[in-house]
HD-GYP domain-containing protein
Amino acid sequence: MNNSNEQYIGKQLVDNLFNHNGVFVLPALTLLSSEHVRLITQHRIILQPHDVIQLDSEAFYQLAVDDCTAAMENIFDQLRYTKSKRLPMLELKNEVIPFIQQVSEKNDFFGILAALQTKDDYTYRHNVAVGILSTLLGKWLKLGPEELGMLTIAATLHDIGKIMIPAEILTKPGPLTDEEFDIMKKHTTHGYELVRDTPGTTHMQALVALQHHERMDGSGYPFGVLGHRITDFSKIVAVTDIFHAMTSDRFYSEAAPLYEVLTQMEDYSFGKLDPYICGVFISKLMQSMIGNEVLLTDGQMGKIIMILAHDPLRPLVNIGEEFIDLSKNRHLGIVRVIPQ
């Protein structure tokens, strides 16, 4: 069998694809995954350059995230409406994980973030977003390929227990009552059981479903454990879970501006979130803002020139002829970063 088709992974089919006997194989506009390529090769089809188009980054992120979101919705629905409470790992590994890994490889944080902005499918898109952001963060923390692969799956499944929570609680437009919140909190233990009981998963991955709402100071749920009892994977997912939730429009709250979210997360790193993991996340995000315009608290506009390792949220800013070190000028601050 010929593997030359592999060069087309991540590209989009132009037309419907049929094999030599006229059997329909894949529809037009399919974003090709490794699984699609395996199927095409099984049908003894060798793709040619004119069969596919290379999407620009923005279109690729959008289509990949939309496809993954639809696949996650399908996985949730399968679990909701079947007696079996085993996760369809094959579907997850073939239709979701490869695209999450491909998007993460791009390292283009703002392009990716735009594609993750929720439409009306927060519950499903959030899983994909946390999968992508955790994979990026895992790379920044220098995890090896095997650990990174395990983290990607764990992060994508972190909220799978929500299939056991009534839809009227999940999509309630206002704040939850104490009773509703108690039910909502159970998604952690439900998720733990679902992942644990599925062949092909690890205990570490089940613990992420259980612990992603636990906090370093013991203020989290379901068990209120302290930081030394929370696994590293769970600490990573806690950071990306909070970040995506705060930067998204949800059923009951609007997205907060990015810089405001990062400031809030820095506060959380004194007690709630792991300070090292959270610090790496904030620092990398700020690095990706070098060159962006910022509005300062005194109304002036400046440009981020350099991120300072000891205080990433207070960078070196250029205004006209001047260079202002915000870490030394504490009376000045950034109101917001203007996207490029």
Q: What stands out?
A: The chain has 13 helices and nine strands. Strands lie at 12-13, 17-18, 24-26, 52-53, 293-296, 301-306, 316-319, 322-325, 334-338. The two ends are 46 Å apart (CA to CA). The domain at 4-53 is CATH 3.90.105 (Molybdopterin biosynthesis moea protein, domain 2).
